[in-house]
Amino acid sequence: MKYCLTYRPNKEQLMNKADELSINFNRSDTTLPEFLEKYRKKRIIINIDIENFTDEDMKLLKAIYEKQPIFTLKFSTYDKKFVEDTKEAHMPYFLSKLVNDWDTFNALIKLGVSDIYIVEHLGFELDLCAEKAHAANIQLRAFPNIAQASWIDTPEIKKFFIRPEDVVQYEPYLDVLEFITTDTSKEGVLYDIYAVDKKWNGPLKEIISDCNIDISSQYIVPRFAENRIRCGKKCLKGSNCTICETIEHLAKTLEKQKIKVVMKKEEEE
Predict the structure, then answer these.
(1) Contact in structure between 179 and 145 (CB atoms under 8 Å)
(2) pLDDT tens-digit series, residues 24-71
(3) Considering its fold, how many domains does the chain have in total?
(4) Among 25, 61, 176, 204, who pairs with 141 as Cys (CB 3.0-4.6 Å)?
């Protein structure tokens, strides 16, 4: 799994660990070429605020890309003109749009984006999403540390989120993970939990925002993610599937009896 972190100049060691670095475009910053050279072995994501973006800005990025073709543009919203300009210059790009439906998903594939953010319901249809996206050479991105649902009353266990222990299960489907935090300084902690330790011994709600599950992650069975990846949330479509509830009940029972779940070596790799 690849990880994208927000660039922070005072965290060089952490920045070197990241697979991708995300920075905001600043037309007054003349050090972009030097930055790209310094991190030429990484993929750089340049965030573009469409409302403040100009033709001159596009010309500047085109000129830089001709010499240093290692960055990808991420537009805050769709703008036909700038998208066409980007494609004409053969610069990879994608949108900040968070995709939770097939209409938008297919539309972005037709637009020729390089990446697509998957959220909410589509997080339970990753097998189908990955098949279509990867066939079009598109990467799928997700936010593991946010419990996502399109309605506030969705049961916590039925929201889309990814435990650190389950990242390995998502690797065939998702390509890049990003963290959403109110403070970018917390990204380093989350990176260590997800990418280095690959486990969390405390309650899920301590590392996953908008998640009120009190169960400690160490009591959830290792195969928790397997069915969620491709279940399509059929439980909400009339099916009698109760896998999530069963796993949650089992976790509470194990926690009450202090029986921790130990992953086998092959499940960690």
Answers:
(1) yes
(2) 999 999 999 999 999 999 999 999 999 999 999 999 999 999 999 999
(3) 1
(4) 176
Query: Quick one: pLDDT band at residue 98, thresholds 50, 70, 90?
Result: very high
DSSP code, position 80: H
User: Which residues face 140 on adjacent strands?
Assistant: 116
* Long-range contacts at 76-82 (CB < 8 A, ≥ 24 apart): 76/47, 76/48, 76/49, 76/50, 76/51, 77/50, 78/111, 79/50, 79/53, 82/48, 82/50, 82/53, 82/58
The reply to whether 161 falls in a domain is: yes
Residue count of the chain, please give it: 269
18: amino acid identity, one letter: A
33 forms beta bridges with: none
Q: Which residue has the tokens 């222990």?
A: 165
Nearest 5°: the CA angle 186, 39, 95 is 65
Sign of CA dihedral 152, 155, 158, 159: positive
Helix orientation angle between 55-67 and 80-88, rounded to the nearest 10 degrees:
20
Q: Is residue 254 part of a domain?
A: no
Give the start-end residues of each E strand in the chain.
2-6, 20-24, 43-48, 71-75, 93-95, 98-99, 115-118, 139-142, 176-178
CATH code (residue 194): 3.20.20.120
Name the residue range of residue 47's domain. 2-212
pTM of the predicted model, to two decimals?
A: 0.93
Sign of CA dihedral 9, 35, 112, 169: negative
For residue 197, tell me if it sits in a domain: yes
In a domain, 48, yes or no: yes
